């Protein structure tokens, strides 16, 4: 049996340990799952004030060159060529079967595209880019940067103390901003459903920036546990759980992530891997299953992997993410069900310890998103 690969550490590892974080393995890294405050209070603090998340395990890339946007557009079903400078878009890497290889963020910073990919998919995404578009643009992997997310209704007040210009940004704006004397790449976005920012900072400055933010009265460090409950209440997918290579954007209810020019009859339609499969599903409005939101009766959370059945006990789907939503004050989940059971208000049953627990197909997000749109 081979020795296990040692876990990687982010530039903030020592700070997490100093502040009493419980560290766990996640996507090849030692990451904080919670702090002494506890998952529920961390979740509530982010909804009420400002939470600071270390997401430095994510992959950060620059795509450079005159063809970078056109090249990237051959791998994703969103418009990259007309993405304005200073704006960011959510994108999907698809495969030839229409399945999702990863979800990612792409920002146009003028001289280059700044791309953030998921930690667990980082190596395969870089290989995918190099294989398919490496001859058309320069792909620079940013190894020496950390990534911090400051999320919550007080996030803008806090960050504006370090650079007042961030308060002029609206949701999905992105640009370069000086923080503590260092140029950082900042977007007004996040993974909690709240207003907030993601900040790419040189690794050597990450701890100083984190300490400066934590020194503000509104800010607490938040771990992976609350990050998961926050994103689930916000109806946001977790790659490898709610979306993967076997799910298409249509099945995953992610049609908004396919730009209209890429699915119309114009010259820019298609042109991405799996386009025939995905566009056929969109045209026919037919798929065997759909991703839906689910709210359970009672207080017990329904976890990932739980089978879903109909009133006759026939298996009709599976839960892909589930937890107790502290803000919703109810067990929330998402999963896939046969299309016949996907209508809002449909009753399905989760098989929890051999007993059916009623769940209702519900609209997402479960908690209203509060992105700042100006």
UniProtKB/TrEMBL annotation:
A single GO molecular function term of this UniProt record: aminomethyltransferase activity
InterPro entries per record: GcvT, GcvT/YgfZ/DmdA, GcvT/YgfZ_C, GcvT_C, GCVT_N, TrmE/GcvT-like
SUPFAM superfamilies assigned: Aminomethyltransferase beta-barrel domain, Folate-binding domain
Organism per entry: Balneatrix alpica
Annotated GCVT N-terminal domain residues: 12-260
Gene: gcvT
The keyword Transferase belongs to this UniProt entry's keyword annotation: yes
Chemical reaction(s) catalysed: N(6)-[(R)-S(8)-aminomethyldihydrolipoyl]-L-lysyl-[protein] + (6S)-5,6,7,8-tetrahydrofolate = N(6)-[(R)-dihydrolipoyl]-L-lysyl-[protein] + (6R)-5,10-methylene-5,6,7,8-tetrahydrofolate + NH4(+)
Keywords per UniProt: Aminotransferase, Transferase
Root EC class: transferase
EC number: 2.1.2.10
Domain Aminomethyltransferase C-terminal: 289-367
Similarity comment: family membership: Belongs to the GcvT family.
Domain of life: Bacteria
Pfam families: GCV_T, GCV_T_C
Name under which the protein is recorded: aminomethyltransferase
């Amino acid at each position: 049996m081979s020795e296990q690969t040692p876990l990687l550490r982010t530039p903030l590892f020592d700070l997490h340990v100093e502040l009493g974080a419980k560290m766990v393995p996640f996507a090849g890294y030692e990451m904080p799952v919670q702090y002494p405050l506890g998952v529920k209070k961390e979740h509530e603090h982010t909804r009420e004030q400002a939470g600071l998340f270390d997401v430095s395990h994510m992959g950060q890339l620059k795509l450079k060159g005159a063809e970078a946007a056109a090249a990237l557009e051959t791998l994703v079903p969103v418009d990259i060529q007309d993405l304005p400078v200073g704006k960011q878009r959510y994108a999907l890497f698809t495969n030839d079967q229409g399945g999702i290889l990863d979800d990612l963020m792409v920002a146009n910073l003028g001289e280059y595209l700044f791309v953030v990919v998921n930690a667990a998919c980082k190596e395969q995404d870089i290989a995918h880019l190099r294989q398919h578009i490496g001859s058309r643009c320069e792909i620079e992997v940013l190894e020496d940067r950390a990534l911090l997310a400051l999320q919550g209704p007080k996030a803008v007040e806090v960050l504006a103390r370090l650079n007042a210009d961030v308060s002029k940004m609206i949701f999905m704006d992105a640009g370069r901003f000086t923080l503590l004397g260092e140029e950082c790449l900042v977007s007004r976005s996040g993974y909690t459903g709240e207003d907030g920012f993601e900040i790419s900072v040189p690794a050597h400055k990450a701890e100083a920036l984190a300490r400066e933010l934590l020194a503000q009265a509104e800010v607490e460090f938040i771990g992976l546990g609350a990050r998961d409950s926050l994103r689930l209440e916000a109806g946001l997918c977790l790659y490898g759980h709610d979306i993967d290579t076997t799910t298409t954007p249509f099945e995953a209810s992610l049609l908004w992530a396919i730009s209209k020019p890429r699915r119309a009859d114009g010259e820019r339609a298609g042109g991405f891997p799996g386009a025939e499969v995905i566009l056929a599903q969109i045209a026919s409005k037919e798929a065997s299953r759909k991703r839906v939101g689910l709210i359970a009766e009672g207080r017990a959370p329904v976890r990932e992997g739980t089978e879903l059945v109909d009133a006759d006990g026939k298996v009709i789907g599976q839960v892909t993410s589930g937890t107790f939503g502290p803000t919703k004050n109810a067990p929330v989940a998402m999963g896939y069900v046969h299309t016949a059971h996907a209508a809002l208000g449909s009753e399905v049953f989760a098989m929890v310890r051999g007993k059916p627990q009623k769940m209702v197909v519900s609209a997402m997000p479960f908690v209203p998103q509060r992105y700042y749109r100006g």
